[in-house]
Amino acid sequence: MIDCCLWLALALSKQVVVCIDPGHPSEVGNGSHGKTLTEIHANWIMAKALESRLSAKGIKVVLTKHSENEFVKNKRRAEIANLSHADLLIRLHCDGSPGRGFAVYYPEAPGHDGKVVGPSEWVRKKSRVAAQAFFSGFAHYPGLGLLNNGLKTDRQTAVGKKNGALAGSIYSKVPVLLIEMATLTNASDEALMASESGQATVADALEVGVEQALDALSTT
User: What are phi and psi of 182, to 5 degrees?
Assistant: First the structure.
């Protein structure tokens, strides 16, 4: 966790900006869902919880949506982060698969969306630094209770394998990472994300991860 003196120094020198992207609905659909919890709702709940925690520490937070069910394309989500000159874009998602647990992704190589190629080498390098630090903070948060599926690259997703990177990364001009916070098709993961105590724990872990990412970015 970042020392309070460092936070004060950062606040005095520059307003720290974090863009939080609660995934879905978008052009790729409404995301995953468990028996009772949808990814859209879980992402929104966690985005608002993280926003509250970061704002309380003097960080300016920009959300890519104004409401839970607002439709925003992935390109636009990256553009919002770019326009806000965010120090970090964190994309919140939940997985749907036969497995369970969380994973963190970042763009290691440029991808393409039509004729658009990105992100830049600078963004890729910074994203790797941010993702490594975020992953360490999130994964080691006490009592998280989620299976650790590792730190991965965009190419290890279905879309990234096809296009080289995720659209939210391709259009990003700021450091970007994506976290699949849990696997909603797993009963225990869904129960964690649906409970107030579980949500609080995950939000706290996200906060620590973001703090460590910002700290790492500020020193590289």
Answer: -165, 175
Residues 104 and 131: their CA atoms lie apart, in Å, by: 7
Q: How many CB atoms lie within 10 A of CB 219?
A: 9
The confidence score (pLDDT) of residue 9 equals 54
Q: What is the DSSP letter of 36?
A: S
Secondary element (H or E) of residue 25:
none
Q: The tokens of 40 are what? A: 């859209």
- What's the N-to-C CA distance of the chain in angstroms? 17
pLDDT at res. 29: 87
- Give yes or no for a contact between 8 and 220, defined as CB atoms under 8 angstroms apart: no
The three-state secondary structure class of 106 is strand
Entry pTM: 0.93
Give the span between the Cα atoms of 62 and 30, in whole angstroms: 22
**φ, ψ of residue 76 in degrees (nearest 5):** -65, -35
Q: How do residues 62-105 score in pLDDT, each as one tens digit?
A: 999 999 999 999 999 999 999 999 999 999 999 999 999 999 99
Angle at 203 between CA 15 and CA 193, to 5 degrees: 150
Asked if 88 contacts 21 with a C-beta cutoff of 8 angstroms, the reply is no
Tell me the C-alpha distance between 106 and 212, whole Å.
16
pLDDT band, residue 154 (cuts 50/70/90):
very high
How many Cα atoms within 13 Å fall on the side-chain side of residue 161? Answer: 4
| Mean pLDDT computed over 130-148 | 97
The secondary element (H helix, E strand) that includes residue 145 is none
